[in-house]
UniProtKB/TrEMBL annotation:
<dbReference type="Pfam" id="PF01658">
    <property type="entry name" value="Inos-1-P_synth"/>
</dbReference>
<dbReference type="InterPro" id="IPR002587">
    <property type="entry name" value="Myo-inos-1-P_Synthase"/>
</dbReference>
<dbReference type="GO" id="GO:0004512">
    <property type="term" value="F:inositol-3-phosphate synthase activity"/>
</dbReference>
<comment type="similarity">
    <text>Belongs to the myo-inositol 1-phosphate synthase family.</text>
</comment>
<protein>
    <submittedName>
        <fullName>Myo-inositol-1-phosphate synthase</fullName>
    </submittedName>
</protein>
<feature type="domain" description="Myo-inositol-1-phosphate synthase GAPDH-like">
    <location>
        <begin position="199"/>
        <end position="307"/>
    </location>
</feature>
<dbReference type="GO" id="GO:0006021">
    <property type="term" value="P:inositol biosynthetic process"/>
</dbReference>
<dbReference type="GO" id="GO:0008654">
    <property type="term" value="P:phospholipid biosynthetic process"/>
</dbReference>
<dbReference type="InterPro" id="IPR052199">
    <property type="entry name" value="MIPS"/>
</dbReference>
<dbReference type="InterPro" id="IPR013021">
    <property type="entry name" value="Myo-inos-1-P_Synthase_GAPDH"/>
</dbReference>
<dbReference type="InterPro" id="IPR036291">
    <property type="entry name" value="NAD(P)-bd_dom_sf"/>
</dbReference>
Length: 367
């Protein structure tokens, strides 16, 4: 089969895990393919994905082959596939805008972005690269809080006429105004804000849904997360967290029998611990009442490698997006967005979303 040609914005830890995964599963059989939700989607396996363009702003990545850039600092995710062949795809200088928080410059080179002195590309420059590369899908991996930068690249995707997968919490796909622009052009979009396969939010949602299904009233809950990658360092700037907290909170609120008052639900990044690197720790507490109004609580500690956890969902989103392109479907892809994203256009419980995706893959559901 032909390759699924993707372009990536931000060659950080998440992009590194995704690209490692594309090569890791290349020589695997379906029986050996541990860690995938789907081996085959529309006839495409993970190794059918090809990176044809990449954008970043860090001088240690810009101008280098993608195969080298994914291991360059400040990336710190686990290396599970170190034999990445040269791709002959150089990282192109992107457009900074609000993609870099000011406080990041206060840390050493191991933990921050070092902005390249190469001239930034404007919309026309980015679109030119996208068109010349033959990219079909543009993946957004910008840091949390990159509101203007995300809108910039969404416009680039529209101008280039390619699909857009928004893996971070700026609301593009779930915004009717933006969604209508892509639908008018017949371009599929998936978003917003990628879930993990088994991460803090989906675990929290699953337990919240269990409370509802078993008749337990949830009174209050928190989810506190710490990590040591650039994502957590970036989020020390609380001004960049509005959409992230909204995305994570709504993901849980949406499955409750009765929405909690703001004072009774706290979900969001809590602190940066450098030595954790790409390991994310989640501390979760849920308090409620069971039969007879008797109180109960659950406390849970979850430890995951953050970036591979998200790549397991992105690799399905990419292939579903390709299927939509082949079927001529434009606009919001409701099923795969609900299954893989924290803030999709429409929220469903995870079991319902999974069934919707299976129907979409089988051609029994339009989007």
């Amino acid at each position: 089969m032909e390759k699924i040609k993707i372009a990536i914005i931000g060659i950080g830890n998440c992009a590194s895990s995704l690209i490692q995964g594309i090569h890791y599963y290349k020589d695997k059989s379906p029986e050996e393919a541990i860690g995938l939700m789907h081996w085959d989607i529309g006839g495409y396996t993970p190794s059918d994905i090809e990176v044809v363009a990449a954008f970043d702003i860090d001088e240690r990545k810009v101008g280098n082959d993608v195969s080298e850039a994914i291991f360059a600092k400040p990336n710190c995710t686990q290396v599970f596939c170190d034999e990445i062949p040269k791709m002959d795809v150089k990282v192109t200088m992107g457009h900074v805008l609000d993609g870099v928080a000011q406080h990041m410059a206060k840390y050493d080179d191991n933990n921050t972005f070092v902005i390249s002195d190469e001239e930034e590309n404007n919309e026309d420059g980015i679109v030119k690269v996208l068109k010349e590369s033959g990219a079909e899908i543009l993946l957004n991996y910008l840091p949390v809080g990159s509101e203007e930068a995300t809108k910039f690249y969404a416009r680039c995707a529209l101008k280039a006429g390619i699909a857009f997968i928004n893996n971070m919490p700026v609301f593009i796909v779930s915004n009717p105004e933006w969604a209508s622009k892509f639908e008018a052009k017949g371009i599929p979009i998936v978003g917003d804000d990628i879930k993990a396969q088994i991460g803090a939010t989906i675990t929290h949602r699953t337990l919240a849904n269990l409370f509802r299904e078993r008749g337990v009233k949830l009174d209050r809950t928190y989810q506190l997360n710490t990590g040591g990658n650039t994502d957590f360092l970036n989020m020390l700037n609380r001004d960049r967290l509005d959409s992230k907290k909204k995305s994570k909170t709504e993901a849980v609120q949406s499955v409750l029998a009765e929405r909690l008052e703001p004072d009774n639900i706290h979900i969001g990044p809590s602190d940066y611990v450098a030595w954790q690197k790409d390991n994310k720790l989640c501390f979760l507490r849920m308090e409620g009442k069971t039969f007879g109004d008797v109180p109960m609580n659950i406390e849970l500690r979850l430890s995951v490698e953050d970036s591979p956890n998200s790549a397991g969902c992105v690799i399905d989103a990419v292939r579903c997006c390709k299927v939509a392109l082949e079927r001529g479907i434009g606009g919001q892809l409701t099923s795969i967005s609900a299954y893989t994203m924290k803030h999709p256009p429409e929220q469903f419980t995870d079991d319902v979303a999974q069934s919707m995706v299976e129907e979409f893959i089988a051609g029994e559901r339009e989007r």
